[in-house]
TrEMBL record:
It comes from the Eukaryota. Residues 594-737 form the TIR domain. This is TLR21 protein. Binds MYD88 (via TIR domain). Gene3D superfamilies: Ribonuclease Inhibitor (3.80.10.10), Toll/interleukin-1 receptor homology (TIR) domain (3.40.50.10140). Residues 1-20 form the signal peptide. Keywords: Disulfide bond, Glycoprotein, Immunity, Inflammatory response, Innate immunity, Leucine-rich repeat, Membrane, NAD, Receptor, Repeat, Signal, Transmembrane, Transmembrane helix. It is a single-pass type I membrane protein.
Length: 739
């Protein structure tokens, strides 16, 4: 019993912890990834189990990591604890995290690093320790058991000492990042124990330490990136006591500071590193006018560097900078040169002519203008150049640019985009080898035969072009983005086109035939920015709109049918047609066609009075009257309107027996409609009105306006209820029929 009770207590405690974790971090309930970042936590929440593989506790207020906090997280792969206030960690806090691959403890308050913390992290690949408050890494290596470590970030503004043995146990690193901006002491050989580092980044202000570190890592680092350094005027060789063979291939300076003296000395020292192929300077400053020690540079021999990249170099008085005369011998083997965003306005012709091996030249975002370009690309300059980027300068006349570049015998790739040419001549002379031309964003209003026919790739995007019809038989790629085209360019002038971009134009569509006319086409990019598209609803959703129109038309027809049925529209249309036919007949039938003395129009509710009293009184009189009654005398099978028309036309008079039943009867309304048209339009006295009972003229439908008028102006016979007056009524009626 006590065993069952113990199990119950353990399970209850476990469930209680899980519930607490769920309340603290709701995302932990449904996923293996547990995100508890920026939740104001002061401690690692309980209930973290083996189910969780990623735990994000960044941006909280955690100060201490206890032994039991992560004890159950045996399957954890990533633990993010950056940007807390962690100042202490129990030595066995990470002991159960054998599968951990990423540990981020950056930007906390750790005053020291203990090797015991990382002792069981056999799978760790990425360790971030930068931004804490430790001043050194201890007397030995905190990383000796991290055999799988790939990237290591360490250092902070207080980090000042690196000792021998601090990196023991680390053999291979993809990236080593050290914030050593205030590093004051470096023991020689401290980094030599690392056999291979693909990319090392170090913030370093102490220029003396720079040389010592370089000597230790020449054999291991492939790419060294040094930030914030003010280069020293070093006399001692950078390769002295260095382990060979060298591995370093690329050296980058960021936010560094140079003087004429230090740059001259650096050029000399770097020549000793035979494997160094690429130099890069980004956001650096040069104090000086180019007064370099040319003699010392020439004496030191040839440079092995093949690629130089300079981006955003600030020279305070760049317009006073010397022309670097005497450097000609140092540039003969250079293959790639980029000087961008650095206020370059020209290259002297004698210097340009010595770039004998240069294949790639990038001068984008500088101050080049046409007249200076004439000297920069002078005759016999840049003899091997294949790619030239002159974008984002101040070039104007396109014809001059074409003439200058025609001096480059091997040029096949030219980028002169984002210059303001404004106009384009009809004919230009370009290098015969030119295959790629970028004229995007150059304000040209059209394309002409100035475009060379040798091109395989042409970019004329963002020029407000309205059409494109150039004959370019070799063209394979054409970029027409952000223009004003309303149709695809013709396929015939570009028979070998493989890729076409017409994004953000005014194309509403194109036919299958237009697309298939490009026989070699493999890629067509006709995307449009949704916010810029101005298409009608029909163009966007043609099938949907057609369906909606059909539905609306169907509903409208149903509505018209319903309205017509309710208000007897069909009847009125047929009656109007009959009336029009009747209007074309003679207004009075010939005497020989008169068959009746009167046609009687009455309500079915009044049939007893009509048929039993009036008919007997009139048809049995001496002489008798012949009456036309619809029940008795209408021709069977004949349309009712035709019967009415014929009966009225064959009757001398028309006798209306009016009553409340009459004006409320739909049948009588139809009968009145036609007789109203026929009789009252003739303005004769053929109508006799008999009122069986008093009736107000307003009770008569408003559409029978003439009938209402007659009742107000003409005498009518009124049936008297008293028997003694009824004989007089009959006599008056007979008199009216005889008139």
């Amino acid at each position: 019993t006590w065993q069952v009770l113990a199990i119950y207590v353990v399970l209850a405690a476990h469930l209680s912890k899980q519930q607490a974790l769920k309340q603290t971090c709701p995302s932990c309930d449904a996923s293996q990834n547990c995100n508890c970042s920026a939740m104001g936590l002061d401690f690692i929440p309980p209930g973290i189990t083996a189910r969780i593989t990623l735990l994000n506790l960044a941006h909280n207020r955690i100060k201490h990591i206890r032994s039991q906090d992560l004890q159950q997280a045996v399957n954890l792969r990533a633990l993010l604890l950056q940007s807390n206030k962690i100042s202490s960690i129990d030595e066995d806090s990470f002991q159960s995290l054998a599968k951990l691959e990423l540990l981020d403890l950056s930007n906390n308050s750790l005053a020291h690093l203990s090797p015991v913390w990382f002792g069981q992290l056999f799978s760790l690949q990425h360790l971030h320790l930068q931004g804490n408050s430790y001043r050194d890494l201890g007397e030995s290596s905190p990383f000796s058991g991290l055999w799988n470590l790939s990237s290591l970030h360490l250092g902070n503004p207080w980090f000042s000492v690196i000792r021998q043995g601090n990196f023991e146990g680390i053999e291979l690193l993809h990236e080593l990042w050290i914030d050593g901006r205030n590093l004051s002491h470096y023991e020689q050989g401290s980094l030599k124990s690392i056999k291979k580092i693909n990319h090392m980044v170090i913030n370093l202000r102490n220029s003396n330490i720079f040389s010592e570190i370089v000597r230790d890592i020449l054999h291991s680092v492939a790419w060294l990136e040094v930030r914030e350094i003010k280069l020293p005027s070093e006399k001692k060789s950078l390769v002295q006591n260095s382990t060979r063979p060298f591995r370093i291939q690329k050296l980058t300076f960021k936010n560094a500071f140079f003087t004429d003296e230090t740059i001259s000395r650096t050029i000399v020292l770097l020549k000793a590193i035979s494997t160094l192929k690429e130099l890069e300077a980004i956001n650096c400053a040069l104090e000086g006018k180019g007064e370099w020690n040319i003699k010392e540079i020439e004496k030191s021999g040839q440079s092995f560097v093949e690629t130089v990249t300079i981006i955003k170099l600030m020279i305070q008085n760049f317009h006073l900078f010397f022309d670097l005369k005497g450097m000609e011998s140092q540039i003969k083997k250079l293959k790639r040169l980029t000087i961008a965003s650095s206020n370059v306005f020209m290259v002297p012709c004698n210097l340009a002519s010595n770039f004998a091996s240069l294949l790639y030249l990038d001068f984008h975002d500088n101050l080049l203008v046409n007249n200076r370009l004439d000297e920069t690309i002078c005759k016999d300059s840049w003899p091997s150049l294949q790619t030239l980027n002159l974008s984002q300068n101040s070039l104007k006349a396109l014809k001059e640019i074409a003439n200058y570049t025609s001096r480059l015998p091997k040029l096949n790739n030219l980028d002169i985009s984002q210059n303001n040419f404004g106009e384009i001549p009809d004919v230009c002379e370009w290098p015969k080898t030119l295959k790629y031309l970028n004229l995007s964003s150059t304000q040209i209003p059209k394309v002409t035969n100035c475009i060379p026919p040798t091109l395989e790739v042409l970019d004329v995007s963002a020029n407000n072009l309205k059409e494109f019809g150039l004959q370019l038989p070799l063209l394979k790629e054409l970029y027409l983005t952000k223009n004003q085209l309303k149709t695809l360019p013709g396929a015939a002038p570009t028979p070998n086109l493989v890729a076409l971009s017409v994004r953000r134009n005014k194309l509403n569509g194109f036919s299958k035939e237009e697309f298939e006319s490009f026989k070699s086409m493999k890629l067509l990019d006709a995307r449009a920015q949704v916010g810029a598209v101005r298409l009608s609803l029909m163009e966007c959703h043609r099938s949907l709109v057609v369906s909606l129109i059909c539905i609306l038309v169907f509903l409208l027809i149903l509505l018209l049918v319903a309205v017509g049925y309710k208000y007897h529209v069909v009847w009125y249309l047929r009656m109007t047609w009959a009336w029009l036919q009747a209007k074309r007949k003679p207004k009075r039938a010939p005497p020989k066609d008169i068959c009746y003395d009167a046609f009687v129009s009455y309500s079915e509710n009044d049939s007893d009075w009509v048929e039993n009293m009036m008919v007997r009184q009139l048809e049995q009189a001496c002489p008798p009257f012949r009456l036309c009654l619809h029940k008795r005398d209408f021709v069977p099978g004949k349309w009712i309107v035709d019967n009415i028309i014929d009966s009225i036309e064959k009757s001398h008079k028309t006798l209306f027996v009016l009553s409340e039943h009459f004006v409320q009867s739909e049948w009588c309304k139809y009968e009145l409609d036609f007789s109203h048209f026929r009789l009252f339009d003739e303005n004769n006295d053929a109508a006799i009105l008999v009122l069986l009972e008093p009736i107000q003229s307003k009770a008569i439908p408003k559409r029978f306006c003439k009938l209402r008028k007659i009742m107000n102006t003409k005498t009518y016979l009124e049936w008297p209820p008293e028997e003694e007056q009824q004989q007089v009524f009959w006599e008056n009626l007979k008199g009216a029929l005889k008139s």
